[in-house]
Design brief:
The structure holds two protein chains of two kinds.
Chain A (H helix, E strand, L loop, with lengths): L2 H31 L19 H8 L1 H34 L5 H13 L3 H14 L5 H26 L2 H9 L4 H12 L1 H17 L2 H5 L9 H6 L11 H27 L10
Chain B lengths: L3 E9 L5 E10 L4 E5 L6 H9 L6 E6 L2 E2 L10 E4 L11 H11 L4 H14 L15 H14 L4 E5 L7 H18 L2 E6 L2 H7 L2 E6 L2 E6 L1 H6 L4 H6 L6 E8 L2 E4 L2 E4 L2 H10 L4 E6 L4 E3 L11 E12 L4 E6 L8 H10 L9 E6 L10 E6 L5 E3 L10
Parallel strand pairs in B: 3-8, 3-9, 6-7, 7-8
Antiparallel strand pairs in B: 1-2, 1-4, 4-5, 9-10, 11-12, 11-14, 12-13, 14-20, 15-19, 16-17, 16-19, 17-18
The chains are: A mainly alpha, B alpha+beta.
């Protein structure tokens, strides 16, 4: 056996281990969601008795469906805002020389490293005073706080890769700075924007800390928070089946999102812009 | 169509460096002017200021009689060809060329007509639906030119548009560019660091050094009457030979021998207030194999040297020889040598002579050479000024 085949085999083995390790909990969750309440604790990997009752159950409770609407709405708005504002900021960081740029970048990084949990109680009080408690903006604002640094960092890396002369060419061709950005720079940074959007969306979609602390009713409760309020048929029964079903349901959008945009993320768009 | 006037234009960067210092240049309507100089001489900054991509610190810039200092690039009605071509990679050739017109809200039929016309002129018709990634270097270069001409702007600005082409295209393209400019008659400012390109292309050439225009003139004028040491050393290939010289009792002592300074030249030197020490410049073609010089032999100076390298190019022969103590020193010469990146740029003690192909010079053998003192250029080693213009 040649060394190349051996290397390939060891890579394949390594990758398989990683993928299996990552997938087992997900598959376990999926399996739980299809199990009948009576067999839920039987320890079998495959359900002995298949049922869709858990899914039917969660979609019949307004707790879950309202939470799903909140989750989608809040995550989408936060993502759009983060990408729009983030790309403007990232563009400035990548392209302009302005006083205080280093400070701005450092502060951004600092915010990203700030432990979210320590903000929860001050925000709780602040939000109640300001009337933001249990509202969509009440969650969107802290999500932006933590996702903007991420967006600015990823996007400025992408902007730096775009040759500056393209923008100058657009300006000489008669574009205003905004037109140059929208028609030349933004399309080229599209892979970066999609990558950023996915990361921000996942962050908002999966957040639990803010969602559980800053909401109280179905007016703004997102799915991760709502799941915590699931109750079983009696108070002695844990609603494991419903939780698993909800878990599967909220994982699906992320999987679709990544599958759909994977090509765009991987494809480099700037080839052929300049010499070489 | 318009003229471009740079009126005492300067550019200072925030860190205090002056990139362009008090430049005055009038570019006539339809004229083809080249800005040439070593890297960092401010020629690209000049061009960017004309385009509006850099602010002007001082002075006035007028295009077609209108002061444009404060105008954004888009309001100056100019087109630019970049060194890297800067084609929009997400657009086809057609979209690239029509982008400016689209921004100007020209209607589609008109855009198509103009793009097709320009594509025909540049032989790009078959490539119109390709993306830049699928084009060769030369094709990309033509698309960049096409994008500029489609808009029929007041002026073309070209920033080293040929320097990324491979050697063969670089020989062909200048002719294409010159023909295109002739055909369209659009005012053109062209930046290059390559003096050969500058000499072959321009109606007029402006030589820049350290942000200052050294001399503006027709190519022949720069070649025959360089105003200073820098222009003399920069223009011409192979470059002018520079030797140290001393003036004593009407005789000029050079490492090649003593020369009686012609009366006319002596008068000019006196008027210029020349000191004792001079730098002597001799163009390679002003040497000749003494064996091939007939009647004029007595008028000039003859000397012998060992030919180190002989290059036979068919129409010419270049003989390189070394002369003891022939290293002339001046700030300008060091700069030129540094820019060329070689020790045997002007200023080293190697001398080159362009000989008639009939010469029997052989490598490693002694050769009797002749030159005419009337063709010498004499420079002030202190400030580099030409003393005998």
């Amino acid at each position: 056996m040649s060394t190349r085949t051996a290397a390939k085999a060891s890579w394949a083995a390594g990758n398989t281990i990683v993928v299996v390790a990552a997938l087992i909990p997900v598959l376990w969750l999926a399996s739980l969601s299809f199990k009948d309440p009576s067999t839920i604790a039987d320890g079998s990997f495959l359900p002995r008795r298949w049922t869709l009752a858990n899914y039917r159950g969660i979609f019949q409770t307004s707790l879950f469906t309202r939470a799903l609407v909140n989750s989608i709405g809040i995550a989408l708005i936060a993502t759009v805002l983060a990408v729009v504002v983030g790309s403007m900021a990232a563009y400035a960081v990548a392209r302009l020389r302005f006083p205080g740029k280093q400070v701005l970048v450092a502060v951004t990084l600092l915010i990203a490293m700030f432990p979210a949990i320590s903000l929860v109680s001050p925000l709780f009080n602040l939000w109640r005073q300001l009337g933001l408690f249990d509202t969509w903006p009440g969650l969107i604002i802290p999500y932006l706080t933590f996702s903007l640094p991420l967006a600015i960092y990823t996007l400025s890396a992408f902007f730096r890769e775009i040759p500056w002369e393209l923008e100058r060419a657009a300006q000489v061709d008669g574009a205003t700075p905004l037109q140059a950005f929208l028609q030349v720079i933004a399309p080229l940074a599209a892979p970066g924007m999609v990558t950023t959007a996915i990361l921000v969306f996942i962050f908002c979609w999966t957040d639990f800390v803010f969602a559980i602390s800053l909401t109280s009713t179905s007016a703004s409760q997102t799915v991760p928070a709502a799941i915590a309020f699931f109750s079983g048929a009696s108070q002695f029964q844990t609603p494991i089946g419903s939780i698993a079903a909800a878990g599967v349901v909220i994982t699906i959008p992320i999987i679709l999102f990544v599958f759909f945009f994977q090509r765009r993320i991987v494809a480099g768009l700037t080839s052929g812009a300049v010499k070489g | 169509m318009a003229d471009i006037v740079l009126d005492h234009v300067s550019k200072r960067f925030p860190d205090g460096t002056t990139a362009v210092d008090d430049v005055n240049l009038k570019i006539g309507d339809g004229e083809f002017v080249i800005l040439v100089g070593p890297s960092g001489c401010g020629k690209s900054t000049c061009l960017n200021m004309i385009a509006g991509l850099e602010d002007i610190s001082d002075g006035q810039l007028r295009i077609g009689g209108r002061v444009v200092n404060e105008l954004a690039p888009k309001d100056r009605d100019i087109a630019m060809v970049f060194q890297s071509y800067a084609l929009y990679p997400h657009m086809t050739v057609r979209e690239n060329m029509g982008f400016g017109l689209k921004l100007a809200r020209v209607d589609r039929a008109e855009i198509d007509r103009k793009v097709n016309q320009a594509a025909e002129l540049l032989e790009l018709t078959e490539l119109l639906d390709r993306k830049p990634a699928n084009l060769s270097g030369g094709q990309r270069q033509r698309v960049a030119m096409g994008r500029a001409i489609v808009r029929s702007p007041q002026a073309f600005l070209m920033d080293e548009p040929l320097s990324n082409l491979d050697a063969k295209l670089r020989v062909q393209m200048p002719t294409t560019v010159a023909r295109l400019q002739n055909q369209l008659g659009t005012t053109t400012v062209y930046v290059t660091h390559d003096q050969t390109e500058a000499m072959t292309l321009g109606d007029r050439v402006a030589v820049m050094r350290a942000g200052v225009i050294q001399q503006v003139g027709a190519p022949e004028e720069l070649y025959q009457r360089p105003r200073n040491l820098f222009v003399a050393g920069f223009i011409g290939s192979p470059a002018m030979n520079f030797l140290p010289g001393t003036l004593e009792d009407g005789r000029l002592r050079t490492p090649l021998g003593d020369v009686v300074v012609p009366a006319e030249m002596r008068a000019k030197l006196q008027r210029a207030g020349a000191g004792r020490d001079l730098i002597v410049g001799i163009r390679p073609e002003h040497f000749e194999d003494a064996a091939l010089v007939d009647g004029r032999l007595a008028d000039g100076l003859t000397f012998t040297a060992v030919v180190e390298v002989l290059e036979s190019l068919g129409a010419d022969k270049f003989a390189y020889f070394r002369v003891e103590g022939a290293r002339a020193t001046a700030k300008e010469l060091e700069e030129l040598a540094a820019d060329a990146g070689t020790g045997d740029a002007p200023g080293s003690d190697q001398v080159v002579a362009r000989l008639d192909p009939a010469s029997r010079a052989r490598e490693g053998q002694q050769l009797r050479l002749w030159f005419d003192p009337g063709k010498l250029h004499l420079f002030n080693p202190g400030n580099g000024a030409h003393l005998t213009l």
